[in-house]
Amino acid sequence: MSEIQWQNPICGGDGGNACLQIGHTPDGTPVLRETANPTELITTTPAGLRNLIEAAKRGELDHLL
């Protein structure tokens, strides 16, 4: 998966110690990783990533913080 196109890291307000990156493989598979542990990847489907982002926007994941 060395051909993943990564977006700039999304970092919290803790000085950059909790950064996530979202990218996609050449075939369009969404991939997530923590910049502190870049070899561990989570893959999903475009619909799965869309559902996660939409749920976060609606506040449905706020209880996890």
Percent of residues in beta strands?
Answer: 25-35%
Helical content band: 10-25%
- End-to-end separation in angstroms reads 30 Å
Rounded mean pLDDT is 90
Task: Report the principal-axis shape.
Answer: flat
SSE order, one letter for each helix or strand: EEEEEH
Low-pLDDT segments, ≥5 res: none
Protein name: DUF397 domain-containing protein
Question: Which descriptors would you attach to this protein?
Answer:
1 helix; 18% helix; 65 residues; 5 strands; flat; 5-stranded antiparallel beta sheet; single chain; alpha+beta; DUF397 domain-containing protein
Walkthrough of the structure:
- By secondary structure, this protein is α+β, with helices and mostly antiparallel strands.
- It is 18% helix and 34% strand.
- The chain contains one helix and five strands; from the N terminus they run βββββα.
- It has one helix at 46-57; strands at 5-6, 10-11, 19-24, 30-34, 37-43.
- A hairpin with a 7-residue loop joins strand 2 and strand 3.
Q: What is the structure about, briefly put?
A:
This protein is an alpha+beta fold and 65 residues long. The protein has one helix at residues 46-57, and strands spanning 5-6, 10-11, 19-24, 30-34, 37-43.
Give the SSE layout.
Elements (H helix, E strand, L loop, with lengths): L4 E2 L3 E2 L7 E6 L5 E5 L2 E7 L2 H12 L8
Antiparallel strand pairs: 1-3, 2-3, 3-4, 4-5
